[in-house]
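Okay, is this right?
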Amino acid sequence: MLVIAAVLIWIVGWWLNVRLANGPAAGSPLVRLAIPAIFGLTVLIVWELMVRGFDVNPVILPAPSAIGARLMVEGPRLWADFEQTIIKGAMTGYVIGGLAALGVAILADRSPFWTRGILPVGSFMAALPIVGIAPIFVKWFGSDWQSKAAVVAVMVFFPILVNTVAGLRDTTAMQRDLMRTYGAGYWPTLFKLRLPAAMPFIFNGLKIATTLALIGAIVAEFFGSPTVGMGFRISTSFGQLALDMVWAEIVIAALAGSAFYGLMVLIEKRVTFWHPSQR
């Protein structure tokens, strides 16, 4: 019965979303919010009913209700893990890597020699496997959040660098000639013309880096961490067959990543309101 109910709920949820997506109010903010909310709620209900209907072992796949209960019970511990991994490791590394990438992009823009020299090095850094550099950084910087921030900084550096360099080259010859006509040197042209024009590219790199920052911080904790952190908790909970705790950490990581990406999108809309993509 539970399996049949799950199939019916899935069909009803799909039908309702199709009606909303193709209806006359499809473009309204309320409907655009309702569609993913209905889809997510449908997935959770079907997941719950399927797990109960097939009597799935919690070690294989816990029910959403069990994951929710773990989130409620382990709130303080989950917050400590979030603070260690996301706030200290991921955010610090994201800021350091982003600022370094912007600085190096401007340096490369000043000199064709630096452009030809830095971009291949940046490409090499992007190709470095995280499972290779994480243990090395743990040895260099210790097992606390500093080593995770270093891993994140390396991971986010290249996408931000490449997008910034591409953005700085996006201005037309006529725009640059106009600035020279006004007697503007390199720095006034950079801050008044080229950096504003590069903002859509820079934000593309920043949005890509949001997911890389979370992945880097969590995976780096597998290779050395104090007794706190999302990667540490996932690793130890999996060893203890506490899959509901593993899924609780995954839920928090997914919510944090979505919120971080959404924040970047909101800032981009405010900064690049003039760009055609925001109209």
Remarks:
- The chain has a mean pLDDT of 84.
- The chain has two domains: 2-56, 70-278.
